[in-house]
Design goal:
By secondary structure, this protein is mainly alpha-helical. The chain folds into two domains: 198 residues, Cation efflux protein transmembrane domain (Alpha-lytic protease prodomain-like, Up-down Bundle), CATH 1.20.1510; 75 residues, Cation efflux protein, cytoplasmic domain (Alpha-Beta Plaits, 2-Layer Sandwich). It is 70% helix and 10% strand. It contains eight helices and three strands, in the order H-H-H-H-H-H-H-E-E-H-E. A three-stranded mixed β-sheet has the order 1-2-3. Strand 2, helix 8 and strand 3 form a beta-alpha-beta unit. Helix 7 crosses helix 8. The longest helix has 30 residues. The radius of gyration is 25 Å and the shape is elongated. The two termini are 42 Å apart.
Length: 287
C-alpha cells in the first residue's frame, strides 16, 4: 500500500470517528461533572486536528521532487509527526493543570450509567481505530499514520483509566483528579516516543541489523572481492531513502573495475531494497 493512500484512509476515518466520540464524551462529562471525561473529550477532538495534519502531510509528502527539492517532499512525514507530538504535549499539560486544580479545590464527579456507557464506547472505538492505523502503517511504512495510531491508543488507555475511576469514585473523592494526572503522564510518554522516532529519521540513522545483513549479502554476491563495508548512514525522505557507505577493493584494481562493481551493488540495492545507495571506494587497509 502506498504511503499517500494510507495517510488519506486513516485521516478520513479518524476524523469521522473522533468527532462523533468528542460530542458523546463532552455530553457525558457535562452531565457527570467529570473533569477527566471532559478533558478526554477535548483530547479526542485534538485527534481530529492531528488527523487533518496527517491528511495534509500525506498530500505534501507525495509531491514529486523538483530542482529546488531534489529529494522530494517526503520529510513532511516526519515534520507532521512532530506537529502531532507538539499537540499531544499541550493536551498533556492541560490535563495536568486541571488535575492539580481539581485536587486543590476538592472537586468530585457524579458518575452514572451514561458516563459508563460512553466510556466503554470510547474504549472500543479508539482501540479499533488505533489497530486500523497501526495496520495501515505496517502495510505502508507511513510514520505519520503510526504517530496518529499512538495518539488513538493513548486516548483508549485514558478511557480505560476513567472507567476504572468511575467504579472507585464512591470510595475516593480525588479519583477524578488522579486519573487526569495519570492520563497526562501517558501522553507525555507518547510524545517522547513519537519525537524520538521522527527526529532520528530526520537526522539520519544507522540501518537496522536486518537491513545491514541484507546489504552485506548483496555485496558478497555481487562484488566478491569487496572488503569491509562500513560507515553506513541512512537518510529517509518519506518513501525515498538514501544510503551511503564505504567498501574496500584491492589497491591494484583499476578505478574503472572497482567503480563498475560498486555500481552493480548500488543497482541491486535499489532493485531489491528500494534504496538509492552511494558507495565510497577505498583501497584495502584504509583507515
Amino acid at each position: 500500500m502506498k504511503k499517500k493512500r494510507a495517510g488519506y484512509l486513516e485521516g478520513v476515518v479518524a476524523i469521522v470517528v473522533n468527532v462523533c466520540l468528542f460530542f458523546l464524551k463532552l455530553w457525558a462529562g457535562i452531565v457527570s461533572g467529570s473533569v477527566a471525561i471532559m478533558a478526554d473529550a477535548w483530547h479526542t477532538l485534538t485527534d481530529s486536528v492531528s488527523s487533518l495534519i496527517v491528511l495534509a502531510g500525506a498530500y505534501l509528502s507525495g509531491r514529486k521532487s523538483n530542482r529546488k527539492y531534489p529529494y522530494g517532499y517526503g520529510r513532511w512525514e516526519q515534520v507532521t509527526s512532530v506537529f502531532i507530538a507538539v499537540i499531544l504535549a499541550f493536551v498533556a499539560y492541560e490535563f495536568l493543570v486541571k488535575a492539580i486544580e481539581g485536587y486543590q479545590q476538592r472537586k468530585t464527579a457524579n458518575f452514572g450509567a451514561l458516563a459508563i456507557a460512553v466510556t466503554v464506547i470510547s474504549i472500543l472505538g479508539k482501540e479499533l481505530l488505533a489497530r486500523y492505523a497501526f495496520y495501515l502503517s505496517k502495510k505502508s511504512g507511513n510514520l505519520m499514520v503510526k504517530a496518529d495510531a499512538w495518539h488513538h491508543r493513548s486516548d483508549a488507555l485514558s478511557s480505560v483509566l476513567i472507567l476504572l475511576g468511575i467504579f472507585f469514585s464512591q470510595y475516593f473523592w480525588w479519583i477524578d483528579s488522579l486519573l487526569a494526572a495519570v492520563i497526562a503522564m501517558f501522553l507525555f510518554y507518547a510524545v517522547f516516543n513519537i519525537l524520538k522516532e521522527s527526529v532520528n529519521a530526520m537526522i539520519g540513522k544507522k540501518p537496522s541489523p536486518a537491513l545491514l545483513e541484507s546489504i552485506c549479502q548483496i555485496i558478497r554476491q555481487t562484488a566478491v572481492d569487496a572488503r569491509r563495508p562500513h560507515d553506513f548512514l541512512l537518510h529517509e525522505y518519506g518513501s525515498h531513502r538514501e544510503l551511503t557507505f564505504h567498501i574496500q577493493f584491492h589497491g591494484e584494481e583499476s578505478i574503472t573495475s572497482a567503480h563498475d562493481k560498486a555500481t552493480l551493488v548500488e543497482d541491486r540495492i535499489l532493485e531489491e531494497l528500494d534504496i538509492y545507495a552511494t558507495i565510497h571506494l577505498e583501497p584495502y587497509g584504509a583507515e
